[in-house]
Design a protein that fits this description.
Blueprint (H helix, E strand, L loop, with lengths): L5 H9 L3 H22 L3 H18 L9 H19 L25 H10 L2 H12 L4 H8 L3 H29 L2
Helix pairs in contact: 1-2, 2-3, 2-4, 3-4, 6-8, 7-8
């Protein structure tokens, strides 16, 4: 089946061809897993989110109209699937914190690894992790985030500030530990 173009593969998936669905999964699962990993609490939850995302992709593939990139479309479906899971868990119904100061986080690449940074992000409370990822990593505006998560723009801003504050503290604590260990 490797001789099929992406559009042919999509058409076969629209016809519920399970071999085509398997090939599409093989083609995009690693990219979408990294998206799921960003938004999940841990590796196992990311795997669950990836499976849910593919079920949604195959369920909604009829809606893809070949406008814009397919990869962009499946990434949006994946993000929305993961966010829906957290909306259903009511993680965004929590308090409105009015922290709006902009906190800068200085990361020196030689001091911390990407894996460490990802683990720090994964440990953030759900509402902070979601807003941080949507804003800082995926470039959504606070207005877009507010609509996606069904929260206010102010809550989005304060959740981002709180996420940055927690990340900054965690990174600083790690740097202090590293400095003590190197003495």
């Amino acid at each position: 089946m490797c001789h099929l173009s992406l559009n042919q593969l999509i058409e076969k998936c629209k016809a519920n061809d399970t071999r085509a669905q398997g090939e599409l999964y093989q083609l995009f699962s690693s990219k979408l897993f990294s998206v799921c990993l960003k938004y999940s609490r841990n590796y196992v939850e990311a795997q669950d989110n990836l499976q849910d995302a593919f079920l949604t992709i195959f369920d909604k593939i009829e809606q893809y109209k070949y406008k814009g990139s397919f990869e962009g479309w499946i990434k949006r479906v994946t993000v929305n699937t993961v966010l829906q899971r957290y909306r259903n868990e009511k993680v965004f119904d929590i308090i409105n914190e009015n922290i709006t100061e902009d906190i800068e986080i200085e990361v020196y690449e030689d001091q911390i690894s990407i894996d460490f940074l990802l683990k720090c992000i994964q440990k953030l409370p759900d509402r902070y992790r979601m807003v941080f990822n949507l804003y800082a990593l995926d470039g959504y505006s606070h207005k877009d985030i507010a609509e996606m998560l069904k929260i206010t723009v102010g809550t989005s801003k304060s959740n981002l500030a709180r996420a940055r504050q927690i990340l900054k503290q965690t990174i600083e604590q790690n740097s202090e530990k590293q400095n003590l260990q190197s003495l």
